[in-house]
Amino acid sequence: MVEVVGLLHASLLIEDVSVSRAFYEGVLGLQPSDSRPDLGFPGVWYDVGSAQIHLICQPNPDPVSGRPPHGGRDRHTALAVRGWEAAKAQLDAASIGYTLSRSGRRALFCRDPDGNALELVESA
Fold first, then answer.
1. At residue 87, what are phi and psi to the nearest 5 degrees?
2. What is the largest CA-CA distance in the chain?
3. Beta strands of 26-106 (E only): which ranges?
4. Of 10, 28, 42, 44, residue with least CA distance to 89
5. What radius of gyration, in Å, describes the C-alpha atoms of the chain?
6. Count helices and strands in the chain by DSSP H and E runs
7. Residues 79 and 48: beta-carbon distance below 8 Å
8. What is the DSSP letter of 39?
9. Which neighbouring-strand residues pair with 76?
10. Mean pLDDT over each residue of the chain, to the nearest integer
């Protein structure tokens, strides 16, 4: 039987690397990883703890319109954050909308510039 022991990375489709970098680096504060090889197409990788986020520049085959307003009802990538109030303030300052988790946890859902849903969950 296979035993899944961890998550290595999540890949998200993006259309414009510079717009996405402004969000992931400027708003979320992530730093690009130098481990991404030349893959023959634009993108960027970010180290997030022991895992990574891979942004892949490619036209998105999924419609962005029609997705649920609350990202918790959509495919999403959850990120543990320290400074949850600061994360909310960063999103507010950048005029990025979000909804609070309906679970009662200190968590919120926002979308990146390409409509990918992200959950930011308070970490101890």
1. -65, -45
2. 48
3. 43-48, 51-57, 76-81, 98-100
4. 28
5. 15
6. 2, 7
7. yes
8. -
9. 117
10. 93
Q: Tell me the torsion sign for CA atoms 11, 16, 18, 24.
A: negative
User: Both tokens of residue 123?
Assistant: 């970490």
Q: Would you state the structure tokens that stand for residue 7, as one six-digit string?
A: 């998550």
Tokens at 74, concatenated? 């959509």
C-alpha to C-alpha distance for 106 and 122, rounded to whole angstroms: 6
**Amino acid found at 70:** H
Q: What is the pLDDT of residue 30?
A: 97
pLDDT, tens digit, for every residue of 24-71?
Answer: 999 999 999 999 999 999 999 999 999 999 999 998 778 788 888 899
Name which of 54, 58, 50 is nearest 24 in CA terms. 54
CATH topology classification for 9-60+67-122: 2,3-Dihydroxybiphenyl 1,2-Dioxygenase; domain 1 (3.10.180)
Q: Where are the domains of the chain?
A: 9-60+67-122
Residues contacting residue 64 through CB under 8 Å, at least 6 positions apart: 114, 115
